[in-house]
Amino acid sequence: MSKRAVLMMTFGSPEEITYEGVAEFFTNIRRGVRPEPHEIQTLYDNYVRIGGTPLQRITKEEVDLVATALGNQASVYFANKFSRPFITDTIKEMENDGIEECLCLILEPHYSYYSVMGYEKFLESGQIKFQIIKDWYREPDLLHYWADEIQKVLDQIGDDSYKVIFSAHSVPVLALDFGDPYIDQIYDNSRLIAEILGLEEEQYTNTWQSESDIGIPWIKPDVLEYLRNEREHPDHYIFVPIAFISEHIEVLFDNDVECKELCQELGVAYHRPPMPNSDPRLIKALLSTIQSHIDGDYSDYQPQLETFDELEAPSSTSQILEEENDIQMPDFVKKLIAKKGRENVKMPYLIKKMLEKKYGKKYD
Q1: Which of 47, 143, 276, 343 has a CA that sits 20 to 30 A from residue 109's CA?
Q2: Bridge partners, residue 206, by sequence
């Protein structure tokens, strides 16, 4: 067995579509804090509505195809962030197999402090050196996959009016203030696909979706809000969720249920190209990404120093909120403090770490 490995990682999904199965998964996402019963029920109902989730099956197909193509060049492992097999368990398996170098490929094409660092925080080993692929959305095969599939929809539409709506998982507005590359990458990704298709600026737009209720504002416009606020609509909307590569709840429910139902209310035809899933064009993009990095530099990784947990609460809320004058807190934080009082405003760890990065101060 090769002493070099590729670790392919994805978000995860419930291991069984039951109330408790969804509750366990949701609790993992909330870092061990069980959500309220109504929150669990809503998520469970959404999974039932779409007939479960194919994410794990699709991801394993992608992993198997990559492993077959790489052959003896590297061993390929698979892990989830919030469901089995967990990243930490897979790293132990790699250690037992004698792996010494691990190339980490997160199955999300864009890099975000908010989500991707949530994977990186689990990459810890006294034996294995890691290299992390930060983003891969510019892979030509992935860009042309989307362009080809959108073009198929355009060919069906003919001369009718349309708009292509590129959407991506939203992130907190703090990402704008602290230089998270994700937002620019999403706009860049949309522009590259639009250029391949020859779309004019008025023929496409960017929206955001799937935001979580964690008490802070998210990047807008939300895709549903965008649809409701438009005064005039084309004959067709083409939804392209470019932040994802596989069918899962945020596509099958957020797009194929919520967006589709709203389109029906508005009298507009709904279209969504198929997700890449295990399409050969996606596999070529993944392999190209791996080959361009596999002989790069591997190093000891210290996630406690290089990452942060986007949902973990800070150890001392009051210490973060009692900023000196040179720290300009966002207006929404000031409003929350004024309304609820300092000790009742729970600032996510994401914001704490971004403040540390921007201002060079350490908060214990």
Answers
A1: 47
A2: 166
